[in-house]
Amino acid sequence: MTTIKDVARHAGVSTMTVSRVVNKTGYASGDTRARVEQAVAELGYVPNAVARHLRSKRTRTVALVLSDITNPFFTTIARGVEDVAAARNFAVMFCNTDESEVEENEHLQMLIERQIDGVLLVPSGSSPEPFRLLGSHNVPLVVLDRRVSSATMDEVRSDSEAGAYQLVRHLLELGHRRIAMLSGQRTISTAADRIAGYERALTEAGIPVDPALIRNDGFAVAAGRSAARHVLATRPRPTAIFAGNNFIAFGAIRAIRDLGLLVPEDVSLVCFDDVPDEWAIDPFMTCIVQDAYSMGRRAAELLLTRLTSDRPTKPRSIILPTKLVVRRSSAPPASIAAIVPS
Questions:
Q1: What's the pTM value of the predicted model, to 2 decimals?
Q2: How would you list the strands of the sheet with 214-215, edge to edge?
Q3: pLDDT tens per residue, range 225-258
Q4: Ordered structural domains, the chain, with CATH
Q5: Which end of the chain has a smaller Cβ tally under 10 Å, C or N?
Q6: Distances (CA, A) of 96 to 79, 183, 227
């Protein structure tokens, strides 16, 4: 195995000079730097990161703990995190919890054992345990996508309540009065906030909230399909469905088609979160768009600044705006469309 001494001998410099060039610390003339870099390339030298980290007591590694890494919303967040981390010479370790608090705790225990520098966490529920665990080991934390009640920690998220309110207002303006809401478990803040926005829009319009039209089956495709089947069986049948995320919307579409119904002719369908353009040949879903990439970038910048700064800073709550994108999946209910002149 090539060592730093081999590189120094090959380049005709000291090991200290090689260290300064490789680690980009301290001064080295252009000619010296070129000789060291050529020696590194010719010998295939790879610095011993473990030894360096032991000396500095830092691993230069952060963890991104996600609830569903298969969802394009979270993979886009991951891209934002990784771009910021790579630019600042940090590695990123990815963990997936499947919205399980048990798996979340296991991942966090493992990360603490590996002496992770900091954690970016999408909490699986409302339990304070992950915050207590990381805090007891002095591991810096930024919460992503979820609202936290404590003012003592950093968070970066979108305004789910306002986005949901805007989406339901859109349906109300089209003439819908019986609107179903399919979401995740209420213990997850994004689910609770989106239901709150849905209920606020209905209440302001003078429409009673019908508990039979609200389902909390989960944020997965199968949950969306099951929840949609339940609400479509109610009478009178809802004329519109609000899916709490894109995976719920995929499941709802399957349930609607199972019944031989069409979107939007029989049922309008809107959702929180868009899907990448390459996932859809003909994008047609009316949705609330979150800037997932910016969410990942802002969270990573917040965490890395906290890790590399010598001065303590106050916890920050960064709430990003959402955007309504109207497409063909939402239309006036059939009863209204039938009397509107073409």
A1: 0.81
A2: 214-215, 179-182, 240-243, 268-272, 286-289, 323-325
A3: 999 999 999 999 999 999 999 999 999 999 999 9
A4: 4-47 (1.10.260.40), 59-157+291-319 (3.40.50.2300), 160-290+325-332 (3.40.50.2300)
A5: C
A6: 15, 20, 24
